[in-house]
Design brief:
The protein has a single domain, classed as Alpha/Beta hydrolase fold, catalytic domain (Rossmann fold, 3-Layer(aba) Sandwich). About 35% of the residues lie in helices and about 20% in strands. It has eight helices and eight strands. The chain has an eight-stranded mixed beta sheet with strand order 1-2-4-3-5-6-7-8, with helices on both faces. α2 crosses α3.
Amino acid sequence: MVERAEFESGYTDVESGSLGFRIHSLRSQEESAGGVPVVFVPGLGASCRTMLPTARLVPAGRDVHVVDLPGQGDTAAPSRPLGLAEYAAVAAAWLDALRLERAVLVGHSFGSQVLVELAAGRPAVLEGLVLVSPTVDPQARTIASQAGRLLLDATREPPGLLRLLLHDYSTTGLRGMGDQARAAIRDRVEDKLPSIEAPTLVVRGARDPLVPERWAEQVASLLPHARLVVVPHGTHAVQYQAPVAVAQALEEFLAEPAGSPSPAT
């Protein structure tokens, strides 16, 4: 598995509804062989950098993009709180601005919720969908429950990630973190999953307290064409903590015939 050396940073101006955004993203600099691009969307309050360990391992021949949603990383905060549907609309507008008519979309945590919303409204854009550590478990749909699980997960994450998240969360700010958390909690992602016809890969870390095995299995069972991969010893930020395992699952998923996900593992 070869690691991509460089990603180029850039900004794209997009409009969504009455709001305008200057969206920051990273794009792989290797020459593409024409494969459908892969787009990564990070989790709540997190920046592009939390996705890079896995993004760098995407097989050659595909453009790879990692995008900062409004208020995250190097994308400025919105002028008002956004609902989940608005985050999805911004992501769709960004795809349109880059003329990415079809892509494999990879979302982590809150990013997976944004992509489920996008997939439900814009199914034609999906070549495939990858939900890494998908939130929110309906049996813990309160900010207090999620915060408690997040603190437990912090004891299991690598120190490098914790340093990165401390910087990212301070950039997003308490207000921005709270706004995104409320959008995540209000979202009933389980109601939308059955409508998604695209092949889907669900990835869970075996030690992820925010995504218990019961919930990950429910997510996979609600999707019409999905399989679940559990990464041994993986944490909530499994795409950062165990990138080789996640990239291997992604590579196998990308190689599968369209509409034919492998059995759950």
